[in-house]
Amino acid sequence: MQIKVTPLGAGQDVGKSCILVTIGGKNIMLDCGMHPGYNDERRFPDFRYISKEGNFTGLIDLVIISHFHLDHCGSLPYFTEVLGYDGPMYATHPTKAIMPILLEDYRKISVERRGVEEKDMFSSQQIKDCMMKVTPCALEETIMIEEDFEIRPYYAGHVLGAAMFYIRVGQQSILYTGDYNMTPDRHLGSARCDKLRPDLLITESTYATTIRESKRWRERDMLNQVSECVRNGGKVLIPVFALGRAQELCLLLDAFWERTGLKVPIYFSAGLTEKANLYYKMYISWTNQKIKDTFVKRNVFDFQHIQPFDRAFIDRPGPMVLFATPGMLHGGLSMEVFKKWAPSDKNLVIMPGYCVAGTLGHKVLSNGGKPQIIDMPRDEGGGKLHVRCKIKHLSFSAHADAKGIMTLIKQAISVDPVNVMLVHGERHKMEALKERIKTEFGLPCYDPANGATTYITTFHGVPVQLSTRSATCSRFPGWAVESDP
Ligand SMILES: [Zn+2]
User: Fold this and answer.
1) Dihedral (C-alpha) 404, 408, 409, 411: value to the nearest 10 degrees?
2) Which residues pair with 403 in a beta bridge?
3) What burial letters (b/e) apply to 225-260, b meaning 16+ CB within 10 Å?
4) Which residues are in the CB-under-5-Å shell of ion ligand 1?
5) Where would you tag: which of 167, 296, 335, 444 has the fewest CB atoms within 10 A of its CB?
6) How far is the CA of 399 from the centre of ligand 1 (A)?
7) d(CA 45, CA 75)
8) Which ranges carry the Beta-Casp domain (predicted)?
9) 42-77 pLDDT per residue, tens
10) Are 349 and 356 in contact (CB under 8 A)?
11) How many domains does the structure of the chain reveal?
């Protein structure tokens, strides 16, 4: 018996997660994401690989969306409404609720600002139509897709609603992690699953070689920097994405202001963030135990010291702290404010996340935070900007680090033979982790590139079939021409 896996995206890369798995004769698509680094057709997975003629409903038996980040769900409306897939799709309740907000934001930016034609993208209506077809599921609920074909989501931490999915068809099974976090943070718990003993564990590996310093140290560092800046009369800009780190850092600052009695105003840019906080309040059961316990007294997402921001405040004198979107300074309010505040050496910009090459955030971070003159992007008015403010990069990313990945492997797997596959990471780092998994656990480990098919033989008391290629190729014409590493 074999399991066949082909990443269409996230193979030795971060972006457009989309992994095709054939297990027990069922074809499953794990995530259907977009690539944030591209504006052309490379932003979506190459679905022609599955079929050049369409008929995706006949070819794919199930689509699973692990969480609402666009690199995991950003091409779903295109796959269903433009390419016509109409089969079963599952996501957790919060993912289903929050996904359309991010998809609409992504559509708007692509069509209205980046000049992508709507026909190459999807419309607002198509997002709505697509979402209607997604079946929501609860944590640890076993869902029978068909007879002897079941799925079960497990808590993944990472962002609200994120889930790992256990999938079993007949005797074969896999666990797909999506993105996950093995250490709890201020608003979410850590990933957890049963001893599932899957034949194959497909895990993200964003931080394949990193062991992160303690979160407490990072938090203290951030609070020191912020309070020093505002006490000296400076302004602090924290570019964030609307969901995830924004809530985490709002909780951190709100509690600190409460403790220290600081009176300096904290703002967050309205719109997306407000809507996002609403969802965090609504899905309080998905957050960590401490937040659930406090909930009886008050909902911590009703921030005491944080108010909505008005554009007129940009030029206000005196200290303030502002959370503004987007997180990589690539447009919107965060860039607008950056232009105004960056020339003063009194001010501070804290970058709490990863910045993709090509964004202003990446440029700002690239010289280690020293003063510099930056050429502003032409579609943002161009010109030169003298950056004299302090720039601080603090990683608050919610991915498992190398230690976390090894812990999950230990937790999920207890008997041989099982296999591990790495996706959603950088090639050379994955290579290092792969070797470590092989030597420390003695497990076969794979890290296929996009488009490369891996065949994994499983043993369940039946004779081993060395190749089922001809049998499956008739269903996936595109797969026949691909290599078999
Ligand atoms: Zn994610």
Assistant:
1) 140
2) none
3) bbbebbeeebbbbbbbbbbbbbbbbbbbbbbbbeee
4) 69, 179
5) 296
6) 8
7) 8
8) 246-364
9) 999 999 999 999 999 999 999 999 999 999 999 999
10) no
11) 2
A 10 A CB-CB count for 30 gives: 27
pLDDT at 342: 96
Residues 307 and 329 in one domain: yes
414, with CB counted inside 10 A (0-12, 13-18, 19+), is: exposed
- Cis ω before 417 (30° cut-off from 0): yes
Q: Which CATH number goes with the domain that contains 436? A: 3.60.15.10
> Which amino acid appears at position 302 of this protein?
D
Domain coverage including residue 282: 215-393
In contact, 321 and 223? CB cutoff 8 Å: no
Rounded distance from Cα 159 to ligand 1 centre (Å):
7
Do 51 and 189 lie in one domain? The reply is yes
Going from the Cα of 36 to the center of ligand 1, the distance in angstroms, rounded, reads 12
Residues 239-286: pLDDT tens digits?
Answer: 987 777 888 899 899 999 999 999 999 998 866 667 777 888 888 888
Check whether residue 207 and residue 104 sit in a common domain.
yes
Q: Which helix (H) or strand (E) holds 248?
A: helix 245-260
- Judge residue 406's burial from the number of C-beta atoms within 10 Å of its C-beta, 0-12 exposed, 13-18 middle, 19 or more buried: middle
Q: Confirm if 209 and 429 have CB atoms less than 8 A apart.
A: yes
The answer to whether the CB of 430 falls within 8 A of the CB of 422 is yes
The Cα–Cα gap between 411 and 227 comes to 40
Positions marked catalytic? 204
